[in-house]
């Protein structure tokens, strides 16, 4: 087994694991981190498939921009929860 094939198998297993964990975790903050990690692993996958344009788009949009927007929305949700708890 060559080193490249071993890396590809490890990458595929990591993609499956992080995707499953992002969907099945009950904690929203962990799901967001796993979603970002999944996007970065997808970037590596596209780069291994010799598609640098898609890899750059995945890194910029999938992991970067979408991850940042989801983290911002999570922060706003946490602030609203804290505000609602303070009013009780």
Walk me through this protein's architecture:
- It contains three helices and no strands.
- By secondary structure, the chain is an all-alpha fold.
- It has one domain.
- The longest helix is centred in the C-terminal third of the chain and has 36 residues.
- The protein starts with a helix and ends with a helix.
- The mean pLDDT is 93.
Q: What fraction strand?
A: under 5%
Order of helices and strands: HHH
Task: Please give the domain count.
Answer: 1
Cα-based radius of gyration, to the nearest Å: 17 Å
* Secondary structure tally: strands: 0
Number of helices: 3
Estimate the global geometry from the Cα principal axes.
elongated
What is the share of helical residues? over 70%
**Uncertain residue ranges:** none
Largest sheet features: none
Topology (SSEs and partners):
Layout: H1 3-24, H2 28-48, H3 52-87
Helix pairs in contact: 1-2, 2-3
Essential attributes:
88 residues; mainly alpha; 3 helices; 90% helix; 0% strand
Can I get a quick summary?
By secondary structure, the protein is mostly helical.
């Amino acid at each position: 087994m060559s080193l490249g094939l071993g890396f590809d198998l490890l990458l595929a297993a990591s993609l499956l694991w992080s995707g499953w964990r992002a969907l099945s975790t009950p904690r929203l903050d962990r799901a967001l981190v796993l979603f970002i990690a999944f996007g970065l692993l997808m970037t590596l996958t596209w780069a291994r498939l010799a598609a640098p344009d898609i890899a750059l788009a995945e890194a910029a949009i999938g992991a970067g921009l979408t991850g940042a927007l989801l983290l911002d929305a999570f922060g706003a949700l946490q602030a609203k929860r804290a505000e609602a708890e303070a009013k009780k």
